[in-house]
Every structure is written in C-alpha cells, then in structure tokens.
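In response to reviewer comment 3 from the previous cycle, which asked for concrete evidence that the modeling workflow produces usable outputs, we include below a single protein chain processed end to end. The sequence was submitted unchanged, and the resulting structure tokens are shown without manual editing.
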Amino acid sequence: MTLNLDAGNGTNNGVNAGQLAPKKPGGLSLGLPLEINTARGSADLVDVDLPLERQGWYHGSITRIEAEAVLRLLREGSYLVRNSESTKQDYSLSLKSARGFMHMRIQKNEELNAYILGQFSKPFDSIPEMVRHFSVNRLPIRGAEHMCLLHPVIAQLL
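The workflow returned the following structure tokens.
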C-alpha cells in the first residue's frame, strides 16, 4: 500500500476541496480544515506501539543520496528515518528544510537504554516515540530549531 500524505500538487487525490478533518475516535469531529491540523495529524500517524520496522516512514537501508532523491520534490518538513550508513547500530533522520536536506544521527545510549537525536535531545524509549514527540515539538538541532517533523514520507512498496 502506498500512502501520499501531502497532495499539495494541485490535485485533489479523491479528497473534496474544503473537506473537514477526519473524525476523532468516539465520533467527535473538530470541524477544522486538514491544513490547520497538520502538526497534530502528523503525530497521529506515528503509532508508538508499532516497532520501527513496521513504521511507514522507516525506509531501512537506503543511502543519504537515495533519501535526498526521495525528499527532493517534497515540501519543507518532509522526513524519513533510515539506517545510518556509517554506524551499523545507529539510524539517521533525513529532513527536507528550506535550506536543503538535513541528516541527523539517532543514537542508542546504552547506559540509558534510550535513543537520542543529536547532542541535546531528551532520551526516548523508542524511535517512534521520538518521531511522535518531534512531530509536535521543535527539533533540538542547530539549523532546524524552528522545525517539526510535519510530513512523513511513506516508503513505496515495489
């Protein structure tokens, strides 16, 4: 299954113009346009109960160059997680910013048994928890302090 979460190219992809946000569990609809709910909607797409390998935005063993090719035509705030090329046990968060691409290392701190993004991140029990957190909170990375993870790039199944 392929999921395009950012149909910002002028086509409606089956969504009627002016369509309201999907109903929340329990049948409550906030009645907000989808655009207003972007950050919260992005966080809702991260199921912290699923392991990393089952997350749609986890692309596995792709290179930095391949990640940039995937992100190139997408808008600012688009992101994916991939295996680190340089350190086997680490991961990389690849992000499209206004200035180009950023690749941030996600390291496992063995002492804390937790994952850390860059040098100044608080520790997280899992990478999905980290991604969900930074979907609604700004990144602790110099040059990306103003950014959140807004648009997950779902891996294409071939």
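Residues 25 and 44 are 11 Å apart (CA to CA). We consider this sufficient to address the reviewer's concern, and the full set will be provided in the supplementary archive.
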